[in-house]
Fold each of these.
Amino acid sequence: MIKKALDMFEGKAIIVGLDYELYDYQAKLVIAQASGALTWADLWRRLLNEPLLPLPEDSSIFRVIEKHSSPLGDYRTALIHRKNKVDNNMSDDNINCQEQVSNKRFLPNGNEKELIKKVQKYIRNNYSLVRLTFTMLDKSTIDASKPICKMFYDNDIFNYETAIDGDISYRNVMVFNRDGHDLIKTSFYRPKAKPHKKGDPRFWPWGFKKSIEQDTLIYITTFENTAVIIPLTEPVCTDAHLESVFGSIISHVNLVEELINEIKQFSGRWVKSCNPSKKSPKDVGDTLELLLGLDINNRSDADYKSSIELKAKRSSSKTADTLFSQVPDWNVSPIKSVRDMMLTYGYLSTHKQRQGYKDLFVTVSNIPNPQGLFLEVDYDAEQVVQYHVIGSKKEVTAIWLFEKLQGRLIEKHPNTAWIIADETLIDGEYHFNYNKLELTSNPIFSQFLSLIEQGVVRYDWRGGYEIDGSGRVDKGHAFRLKSPKFRDELFGEIETVSLI
DNA sequence: GAGCGACCGGTAATAGGCTT
DNA sequence: AAGCCTATTACCGGTCGCTC
């Protein structure tokens, strides 16, 4: 009986896998989540109790896939990988076309991505993207998603929480158009819904229909406590229009030039490592800070004149970028310390020098890891939450407050210089050659949260504790960006500078 | 060839017990 | 009560090796 039920789900997974170009295990995960389970194994356990569980509907399957697709890029996340074009040949072209059309509805196309970057040269506040559908224009409403509600609340624009269903409030909203921009009277409200249920938060700028076409992607952000709507089309989203509102591009050009000139004193040639006899991961960064005359530090702010954070890497490295280290807010977390965390969820150390330790060197992403730990973003409570799951039991373990994370992210990365070095051995001594630099500025916090949801930003536990004793290791428990290739998702525009 | 889990080297700040 | 010492915690800088 159970076998048969599982077979049905597996069959559905195979079909979905083919339709959406997923690996088997990914398709299974999608089916599991669309059925309300956390993982395939979890679904299996649920079927034991409830063998007649229906197959998930296509709409919920699509929702899961949509949830795991990035709003900013045309790639799939950790959960859903795009297969190589090469092994696509056997798939049905019609299905492919339909799939592409439905995905394109949400994702920015190439031109729109360029316009997003252009906007972000001028204004870096939190933002959301909405693709205007036929229904929105027809009914004259835009649904305010959770991040949009939060953005309006944070900037004293509108509070949907205290709004009474059916009461319509009006605020002026800055709407960009072909001639520049206008302040447009805009309605904010929750419609009267069923009893015991709050109406979905909505807004609509008066006369928006006249100035906008269906399927336009709009960029919603805030500026000096006013909501701003920028349709991402060429004639509207111009430098002239943006500059007239937000002023000329803010830059740290001088400080950056100063840094580049300092690095050029020793770039493009081999310089001896600060620890030449031994190869250690941190040397590439420590040597750079030494050359620049900076103290090797563990300060939590940026390295160079508190304004530019330096990140050095070996050119051979393709590993995750450490964004910043931050332990959870213990006073609001069920787990009360790192030690508590390690001893509760750690595994017995296999390391020779740490016999009798519980280690936890693991990455926590949006899907459960081998310890059953995963992250979720709770926009209502304004927290990033680490859950632990065994079977169908899911419990909160640790919590980071938005406020703290936002502070850390902005404090640490106002401007970041990612410096690439080659490494070589000369006469038995290690040397570095710093020769390339990538510059990023002002990370976008809403994007940070979105990337957590997508599994692109993850949290690493990096430590261990002696079970009955005081021995410990701690390499810094940190939020990290899965791969350097996602830098532009978090930071928007990136500038590459050659140092040779 | 990239993803992923596991893992490496450090220092600064702070709390609390003990001595003076 | 001031000062000192030590234990503890929270940050800093990263890569490696196996699998799919």
Amino acid sequence: MNDVGGPGGHGLLAGTVSYGLKRAYRRVIRDLEEALRPHGFTPPLLAALSLVGANPGIAPAHLAEAMGHGRSRAAPLLDRLEERGLLERRTGADRRSLELHATPAGLDALGRLRPLLDAHEGRITGGLSAAETQALARLLDRLAPGQ
Amino acid sequence: MNDVGGPGGHGLLAGTVSYGLKRAYRRVIRDLEEALRPHGFTPPLLAALSLVGANPGIAPAHLAEAMGHGRSRAAPLLDRLEERGLLERRTGADRRSLELHATPAGLDALGRLRPLLDAHEGRITGGLSAAETQALARLLDRLAPGQ
DNA sequence: TATTGTTATACTCTATAACTATA
DNA sequence: TATAGTTATAGAGTATAACAATA
């Protein structure tokens, strides 16, 4: 029983959920980046547009919170989406806050990306049965609930 | 059946393994960063030292490969570990390549960090039973096998 | 005084290419 | 010429703090 794990292993980190998550995430994020690149999207850009599409009128601060980061991260993402005509910032009743809306072009982009995301998900879960995939999705959701 | 998902949801990304992985990973990496910060470690620094500890004599290129990135990422990590006396670079028979070894101080640091990592893993998997945790670890390993 | 959005800043992670020294 | 390690560079993601406008 070696403190740092056997030769050839990953030492302290071997076999942990934490490290398994890290390695699986790296594989996923790279596959998704490659799939989105030809379409001019990055994973955060897609996540932002998808969230706005599903939550019309959402405020930037709420969007940032749903994406799991601070307010200041939203602005440059929204700039890029608005420049491309995929999203609008509208001023609401409280003139401090904004209401975000996907434009028809934005909704159209989401529709066109959908099969691409299905294919991505298929590559990720290709080694698992449907039951295993569902079990994994549920376990992951319990690891990072709410939000 | 809405193309972008129902109101309040995450749109295209809702319920996918890919997105669940992203959110779970973010929770994990932040918890680990906070746990390691008081001890002067970051997750990549710990992963590198742990790998060298478990694989004495490993070369930087092999270490980088095991960590899932390119050769050039190893050097600054090794610099920081060597400066702190946790690791040594020794020249091998082929004088182009190096053999990496954890120093006694490095092995000691790994030993001291172990309970901290166990606590981290416990926080991550706290909501799961032992059987669920093991099932999750196995499913994750099948998502990013080998390496 | 508190809140919203934004800007500025800095740091880390990451990828690519170029450089050196060895083989 | 090929390989190993390093350096330089650039870009993306992230966090914090500070700012202007509004409440």
Amino acid sequence: MRVDARLNRERILTAAEEVFGELGAQASTEEVARRAGVGVATVFRHFPTKTDLVEATLVRHFDDLVAHARTLATAPAPGPALGDLVTAMVERGATKVTLANLLGAADQVPSGAADAAQRLRDAVDAVLRRAQEAGVARRDVSVDELYFLVRGLTQAAAALPVPTAVSRGAVAVVLDGLAAKR
Amino acid sequence: MRVDARLNRERILTAAEEVFGELGAQASTEEVARRAGVGVATVFRHFPTKTDLVEATLVRHFDDLVAHARTLATAPAPGPALGDLVTAMVERGATKVTLANLLGAADQVPSGAADAAQRLRDAVDAVLRRAQEAGVARRDVSVDELYFLVRGLTQAAAALPVPTAVSRGAVAVVLDGLAAKR
DNA sequence: CAATAAGCGAAGTCGTCACTTCGGATCTTA
DNA sequence: TAAGATCCGAAGTGACGACTTCGCTTATTG
């Protein structure tokens, strides 16, 4: 692959992340191209369909979160680690959830995104289990439920322009409900 | 207004509720017309823009919830009433939230929907305050946060068909976090 | 029951957006 | 450094969806 091609690919991904974050998932491919400083044809050469572009953006984002989760899985304090993870997912994912919605709306869920989501699920699972074994998280909560909660918080946060006292408070309530009963 | 016009209006609203619930917010107006058994022109005569149609559907749904909330505001047990309300909003609203997203994406938030949302907020506020005064809900939670949580849970439930057990579990966690500390 | 006003649907128009084509510019390698 | 492969952007194309027009139908009213 030529160096200019690789550079453009990188520029497109970065632009897609910005544009979809600001304009929402229905932003046009042409807007992404404009922001990246390339022609539309270049975008389509790298990502044959719009779904491919969205998928690539999502996978990149998910893998970031996976790395973060794996670090937290070996952190000294399992309880705060779980809290950190939830907060990070909500705040960093806020702009990306609309993308996931677009993907969900498509008839077929692309395998690449599904794989990345699975990796993230597993990493979150590890953090949760560790907190449960340390006795600082309810044992009757499954990853599915935690995932559901995080997804919900993230989606609600995405509606707001900036993380606010309200979203922080809501996260606090959930973390409190997640904590082991005293 | 002629009786056939009123009947058609009713049919259109019902169809819109179904279609947007099943196909998502980006479903076409023509699909709504087909489902209602009328021509597209009829839909546009009753609701000049698609936004108007979405708004009308939302207002109807919100007002249903407002009625429910007002009933619960005078229920004998304030704690379970709050739980009931949250559950009802999440489960009944699941198909409707995508509509709210579409509205939010539009440049202008129609005043009608904003008013209905305000009425709902006030009704929920009443139920929450009553639970707090009865000492069964945390006092450091505001309506804003509760609303945020419900919105998130509903959106997550709407996004993809989730097993009821999972959404119920997640709601339980939130309600637990909402309960007064022991 | 006839006149009339309101309502209705079929067949458009217009703009937008995902995706393609092709002639020219640019990087690579011998 | 020059041949040649690779990459690029400007200008399409075709489909789809929001919204309009108009001739016909149907409910209302004196």
Amino acid sequence: MSPKVSKEHLEQRRAKIVEAATQVFIEHGYERTTMKHVMDAADVSRGGLYQYFSNKEDLFEAILADRLLIDVAKTDQLLKEKVESYWDLLLSRIFGESKEPSDHMDPLAASNLEFFITGRNDQRRRNYAQERYSFALKLYANIIEAGQQSGEFSNKQSGEMIARSIITFIDGLALDHAILPKEDVKLKEQSSLLIEYLRLALEVKN
Amino acid sequence: MSPKVSKEHLEQRRAKIVEAATQVFIEHGYERTTMKHVMDAADVSRGGLYQYFSNKEDLFEAILADRLLIDVAKTDQLLKEKVESYWDLLLSRIFGESKEPSDHMDPLAASNLEFFITGRNDQRRRNYAQERYSFALKLYANIIEAGQQSGEFSNKQSGEMIARSIITFIDGLALDHAILPKEDVKLKEQSSLLIEYLRLALEVKN
Amino acid sequence: MSPKVSKEHLEQRRAKIVEAATQVFIEHGYERTTMKHVMDAADVSRGGLYQYFSNKEDLFEAILADRLLIDVAKTDQLLKEKVESYWDLLLSRIFGESKEPSDHMDPLAASNLEFFITGRNDQRRRNYAQERYSFALKLYANIIEAGQQSGEFSNKQSGEMIARSIITFIDGLALDHAILPKEDVKLKEQSSLLIEYLRLALEVKN
Amino acid sequence: MSPKVSKEHLEQRRAKIVEAATQVFIEHGYERTTMKHVMDAADVSRGGLYQYFSNKEDLFEAILADRLLIDVAKTDQLLKEKVESYWDLLLSRIFGESKEPSDHMDPLAASNLEFFITGRNDQRRRNYAQERYSFALKLYANIIEAGQQSGEFSNKQSGEMIARSIITFIDGLALDHAILPKEDVKLKEQSSLLIEYLRLALEVKN
DNA sequence: CATGAATGAGAATTCATTCAT
DNA sequence: CATGAATGAATTCTCATTCAT
């Protein structure tokens, strides 16, 4: 009994839904998008949608997981390519390849925050949030601690705490960016301040 | 001519609703609380509730406004009492009277963020968010700039940008505190890092 | 124990409510006006309003009754003044003093129809409707029959049936006038047709 | 790809709702019927009902549209069959196949009037009313004008105005029939008067 | 597997009427 | 008498989820 449809076909269909749903979530936010929105955007039937994702939460988590995978892949490549300096590595981790502050932010970030904040009383969601947090924390902390051991960074501050404060600040930026007009957040300038701070805190040589 | 009930009674009733609603919002968050929740908690009838607040948004904004008033009053008093050093003033503005990092956070903060983030596509809500942001920004910026002019703080960094980054970081803390278990946010430690950073950025003497 | 307030005062108050309510009913129609609308327009308190009229239906009926009284008074005067010809009498009864078709209609007529048609399943309302119908019928019929007896009108058609058809046609006009744009109803022209018809049916000499 | 249920099934279901709703509207009138009434009568769930009709207004308009279609079909057939005399055509248009006054009236007529009269301040409803009026007007006017051109009717009166007055009178009849007891309206007799009038106005030969 | 019709719990809001002061 | 706060029944509409075909 071979499956009626190929695995690729299923994968394609799923990918199409994920992509369409991402756009919908970006546009309407997590709470306000309905399964109907997704159905229409992905051109799937109700039943079809539920075949792949058993509810809105599941769908959103799938999007997050997919993106995490991509993110991890990027980081892995980063680690392979450029280890000239941990400082550069840290910057590219924070700001992407350009290693420079930009006035752009992941368009899904707002819905992301929304997802976790509206679900903060739900244990499942809390666990998921924590998992993701731990993951990100480890990522930053590893880089910083490696830099400290190599002597590139100072040991004055705990690497983990610096990592935490990076995440906190970026979360704050994402939040304000979601809520306020661009003129108010000054994404770029604030990012520069963050770099400035890190340079001081880590006593980066150069 | 003679009103049925005294003005105080009305105020009391309103206050009772506001208080009860605050607890409900703290417990369930903004999106998840329903007017029914509030009715039950405040022991008011449906109609009674709607007499005072014409919908959930209105009710929540009333709570925010009430709290802002209290906050402003506190700040005013602060300004009258202690102007020994702008550094102290800034700290008491950030952490309250104790001027010290604590592991406690305004319990309504989470719903607050939720309110603004789920309503980020609503113009009315955006305006409201911006208004509140501007208000807070001015508050911090004024203190910092006064400190700079007095020579207590360095001019190296723009006072306004520092003010912005304080807000961003605090927002990030509130967000993470809402979502993650206490052990992860390390409110107190991160607050200390913030102080450390400000000390560096403002080149506070002492 | 003399009453605390004079009877005139009460009458004035009542009249004020009736007048304001009339305007409100004209503007919003019967179903759509709320007691709140009336309260605001008449500048009375809720309780005050209910003191005079125990509900919306009662209020509306009071308005109708008041207007009927005025109408009856006018007719009485008509009868005293001008009995030169029953034809003239009939016309002034239908079109008012001018005895001529006009493009204007009692502004309350629409709410009137609405009142009776939405309440057509209510026995009380039906009775009231019938009462008013009988009254109007008698009015027209009396004039026509008197004209027939005087020889001014022909006996070919039953006076009562003509009276009925006058009412029916006027009701139809009121209805169409309420619903359709002025251009479509052609109130004046249709009224002229009615006269034309009556002239034929009654074989009016002149 | 394969739809769950046949198109016929959907049509049947829709038809069932329309039919049930028609009965409900006849019984309670437009304003007084609630979607719950319809749900119960049609044995549909709330969601099911809203799947087909997005609100009460939509539902009612659907009923009207369905009936208009039937009406148009009947007229078309009429036109094909009997063009012996325009007079007969006119009568069958007014009174149906029997061409004779009857003491019966479309049971939905009352709700129909109610629908338009309670919605007279709503632009959408007004447009709809006008559209329907224009349609009916053209229908009558066409017949009369054709009769005038053929010489069967006199040109003395404008065909369009006669058409208007027919509609006005029928509307009046429907109104009175909705509100008053049968004994008062005398539908049959008044219809005869209408015929009499038309015969005079059009100077019908025979 | 895919479809989309059907379900029904639940939330918001309105308003006539009552009644304590 | 007058006031207007309080009540709560009633209604509309939405949407996640199920399930027969």
